[in-house]
Write a structure and sequence with these properties.
The chain is α+β, with helices and mostly antiparallel strands. The chain is about 35% helix and about 20% strand. The chain has 13 helices and 18 strands. Strands 1, 2, 3, 6, 7, 8, 15, 16 and 17 form a nine-stranded mixed β-sheet that branches. The chain is globular and about 80 Å long. It starts with a helix and ends with a helix. The structure holds ligand BES and manganese (II) ion (MN) (2 copies). Ligand BES binds next to loops.
């Protein structure tokens, strides 16, 4: 059976596959920092060279930002688009890493072998699971899987500014029946999932300014407005006692969890205590009266991602700061409208800013939630294929994170996405000491071989 031969080929090729991934991880493709623009380009070129060597027609496509990589396998078969991103998050705080984030290595840990380095799990290691499956496929079949288009982006971690125009301009070329996206996680270490709903994202930065300079907090304090106090009051007012977001109209478009989905998620037996214990916590802190999976997958949130103002350095300084700022993100669900929420949030903040202060807003992206139509038989075929590879049956799951391209594929290219990934909750994505389990990488490649075999 050729599938068995492809799987054997993946097993035999694992050491070389890991070397290739290590090479890829050495390229510091941090998209949000312009100092790394040349490295982003090198990562795109690295992919073009890999795919060309595999026999695909691969091209680097310039955009106003970082380049896209588009490659096609040619041949016949159901038209499929595979998406991943080659850019990575910044690495700071660097002193919390146990190794140079761009000098990756395989490490032995009590839970097995991992490959450690920035981008190992998000998303270079994940996108390479698909490339390695295609490589083994070609070794066995003589050709790459037919009619597959690869799209690799280099701006996913910085809000994808070039993506929508690129999809619009290249819609004819990129259009397919179905997209495959490898940028999500497993449900549990031994149980894969197909993500059927993703939360959207609205990013806002608020800057409040008071006096035209920092002041002595004794000479001016009590009389002069304090922007940090104003900001703290605003931040504290964003949630009520039950953990609900207070922005007017925020819950417009938030659907009730259907009984069917509630039952499906209950049956997953998610252990919130165990999930939280992995990060040193124990008590769910979300909306009252909602299950843990609802809080993570189907309820909208407002989180403060960062806050600054005044003196927070060593020692003590009695200062009345001139400025205070916060970065705030909202995760959105259902048909919540990011732009309406932005307007409402800004109006609410403006109302609370003291008359003697000014406020400025910076926009950090807005993308609605997306939900997949799983009626395409490829979903069930993929679920069976995954279930054959992993110790436990694959589940339909939600994801708390955001992948705006899944929504753009629906609205611009008219196709749904199968979101299948092999990350674990303890991969430390976006954080120091990011890793990807060798088992995720290996089983991930085997999973794609099975899925390709099942859906074409
Ligand atoms: N791969 C993540 C999204 C993700 C993480 C999905 C975990 C499912 C589970 C992606 O690279 C990411 O980090 N997305 C950002 C949004 C983006 C617009 C900056 C996010 O979710 O914060
Ligand atoms: Mn990602
Ligand atoms: Mn990410």
């Amino acid at each position: 059976m050729t599938l068995t031969a492809v799987l054997d080929r993946i097993d035999a090729g694992l050491p070389r596959s890991l070397e290739r991934l290590t090479d890829f991880l050495r390229i510091p493709s941090i998209s949000t920092d312009s100092d790394y623009a040349a490295a982003c380009r090198r990562a795109a070129e690295w992919l073009v060279a890999e795919l060309t060597a595999l026999g695909a027609r691969a091209e680097l496509r310039d955009t106003p930002g970082h380049p896209m990589v588009v490659a096609r396998t040619g041949g016949a078969g159901r038209p499929i688009l595979f998406y991943g991103h080659y850019d990575v998050q910044p690495v700071d705080p660097l002193d919390l890493w146990d190794r140079d984030p761009f000098d990756p290595a395989i490490e032995e840990t009590p839970d097995g072998r991992v490959i450690r380095g920035r981008g190992a799990a998000d998303d270079k290691g994940q996108l390479m699971t698909f490339v390695e499956a295609c490589r083994a496929w070609k070794d066995v079949h003589g050709d790459l899987p037919g009619n597959v288009t690869f799209l690799f982006e280099g701006e996913e971690e910085s809000g994808s500014p070039s993506l929508v125009p690129f999809l619009e301009e290249n819609a004819a070329e990129l259009g397919a029946d179905l997209a495959l996206i490898c940028d999500t996680g497993l449900f549990a270490a031994d149980r894969p999932g197909i993500v059927t709903q993703l939360r959207g994202l609205l990013g806002e930065e608020v800057v409040i300014r008071g006096a035209d300079k920092d002041l002595h907090s004794g000479s001016f304090g009590g009389l002069a407005a304090n922007p940090v106090r104003a900001l703290a009051r605003i931040v504290a007012s964003l949630h009520d006692e039950a953990g609900r977001v207070t922005v007017p109209g925020f819950y417009d478009g938030v659907p009730d969890l259907t009984a069917e989905l509630a039952a499906q998620w209950d049956a997953l037996g998610f252990d919130a205590g165990l999930f939280l214990s992995g990060v040193g916590l124990s008590i769910p802190a979300g909306e009252a009266g909602r299950s843990a999976l609802e809080q993570l997958w189907s309820r909208p949130t407002c989180e403060v991602n960062g806050i600054r103002g005044g003196y927070a350095g060593r020692g003590f300084k009695t200062v009345l700061p001139a400025e205070a700022a916060a970065k705030i993100s909202f995760r959105l669900v259902g048909s919540q409208d990011p732009l309406a929420i932005r307007d409402s949030f800004r109006a609410m903040v403006r109302d609370m800013v003291p008359a003697d202060c000014t406020v400025e807003f910076h926009d950090h992206g807005a993308a609605p939630a997306s939900r997949m139509d799983t009626s395409d038989p490829a979903f069930e075929a993929a679920r069976r294929a995954l279930s054959a590879e992993w110790p436990h049956e694959a589940a339909y799951i939600g994801a708390g994170g955001s992948i705006p391209i899944a929504g753009h594929f629906q609205s611009i290219l008219g196709m749904d996405s199968m979101l299948i990934g092999f990350g674990r909750d303890d991969d430390r994505i976006h954080s120091p000491n990011e890793k990807y389990d060798v088992a995720s990488f290996h089983r991930g490649a085997r999973s794609w071989a099975r899925i390709l075999d099942a859906i074409r």
